[in-house]
Amino acid sequence: MALSNTVLDVSEIAWFIRMKHGIDISRYRPTCFRRRVAHRMAMIGCETIEEYLGHLTADASEMEKLMDVITIHVTGFFRDRDVFDALEERHVPSLLSRGSGGGTGTLRAWSAGCSTGEEAYSIAMMLEKAARVSAPGTKIEVFGTDVSEDACRTARAGMYGEERMEGLSSRMRSEFFRREGDGWHAKQSLRAMVKFRPHDLFSPAPFSRLDMIFCRNVLIHFEHFVRDAVMKGFHGALLPGGFLVLGKSEVLAGDAERLFELIDPRCKIYSKRPSDGQSREDRR
Fold first, then answer.
1. What is the pLDDT of residue 221?
2. Mean pLDDT over residues 240-264, rounded?
3. Which fold has domain 81-282?
């Protein structure tokens, strides 16, 4: 089946996804969406959009598979380790010294587009380690969200095969995981720090008073006007001086650039700028 030379009309697929799941695919970059649909069509042998739409209607599992490839992004424990090291060594201590959670004693972070949970668990482990040194007794709350319910189920289970554990030292494995058969299961102490739920980034931010947001290599799938709207939501969800962590190839521009200050160019770590009428001295 030669789909590569055909510009697919995927408007019916986009309409079906919106009616079925309330997700507005028009906000994704059209070329990305067409490539993902073509990939799934090729995988199951559909020749036409009409045939594939019929398959989507008849097989609920295919919708989950399509949404997984639409929102696909590489994940792994402590992916881009230098980013986590920079946060732990240079940036998180400043949050703890000012009083986490705006003085509530709880450090709150959000992994937006968390996939199967490795990033969210990594954030929790990093924050717990930093708090243990700088502010013992600090409570850690990490929220992981993804548009895929299937990915969230995997994340909640916290069960990973040996190949997925790369990036974790033997000490961290023994502290936060236990061996079960051929895999590793996140201990209750770790899973208690992390909560997962489905969420579409086009919707309002589901959390507030956050110290940190990770959203790495997710927004590259969106149109520019959508990225600006998402960034405004992130800005509102963060406490003053809170951190936004993007992918290393991502750059803020336009209105979003005025909302955040780049404080670590190499690791793409931004700090929330004060809102209008709020001085830097008023932070926290």
1. 66
2. 91
3. Rossmann fold (3.40.50)
